[in-house]
Inverse folding.
């Protein structure tokens, strides 16, 4: 069974541009969440989608947005990129809402560098 | 609010020796605790989780974790470390029924031959 797939794996953008990252969850998983990982802030929750609806949101500015499609695939978008947005963006999926004990599985991440 | 803490930024172990990576938690309600490992330039790999039941949880790659309610700890252990275990380890607690995890700051494990 394929794992969580994220594309692209690496990308470089210029300040002020926008970026879209894509995530395909494990087959059958309907919950997709996004995390940002930086050396300074560690792993921080961005948002979660279930059945095309945002269910939870972390403490990030409105420049960070996401969506989920009917096939559970998800995209996140960052507009007006800043240097501080350089990070590893991780997508995770789980079979929520079956229970609190569900395992959350992560993809390999998308490395974003803003120059 | 849920939180976890990993008190050690780095743990150094000789190959063949037992290893412990520490994690303490603070939760309201029952804790749902996870350990993940991250190898360089990779995503997070699930190792094990505690939901309820036995305090000793067995996971992938020979790792296990001991849940201790009185000490609010969930330490990761392995009886005999391998050089290939060298990686960044994260403890996490689930924040509610969705996909939100609260992570510790991570512990870098270095296993020397």
């Amino acid at each position: 069974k394929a794992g969580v797939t994220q594309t692209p794996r690496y990308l470089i953008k210029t300040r002020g541009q926008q970026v879209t990252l894509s995530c395909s969850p494990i087959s059958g998983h309907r919950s997709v969440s996004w995390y940002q990982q930086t050396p300074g802030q560690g792993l921080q929750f961005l948002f979660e989608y279930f059945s095309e609806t945002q269910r939870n949101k972390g403490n990030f500015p409105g420049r960070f947005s996401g969506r989920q499609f009917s096939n559970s695939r998800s995209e996140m978008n960052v507009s007006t990129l800043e240097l501080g947005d350089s990070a590893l963006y991780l997508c995770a999926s789980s079979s929520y809402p079956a229970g609190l004990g569900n395992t959350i599985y992560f993809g390999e991440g998308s490395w974003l560098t803003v120059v | 609010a849920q939180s976890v803490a990993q008190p050690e930024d780095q743990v150094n172990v000789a190959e063949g020796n037992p290893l412990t990576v520490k994690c303490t938690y603070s939760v309201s309600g029952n804790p749902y605790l996870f350990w993940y490992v991250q190898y360089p330039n990779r995503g997070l790999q699930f190792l094990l989780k505690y939901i309820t039941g036995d305090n000793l949880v067995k996971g992938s790659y020979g790792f296990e974790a001991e849940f201790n309610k009185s000490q609010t700890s969930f330490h990761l252990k392995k009886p005999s470390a391998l050089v290939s275990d060298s990686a960044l380890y994260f403890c996490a607690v689930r924040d509610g029924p969705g996909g939100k995890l609260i992570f510790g700051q991570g512990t870098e494990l270095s296993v020397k031959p």
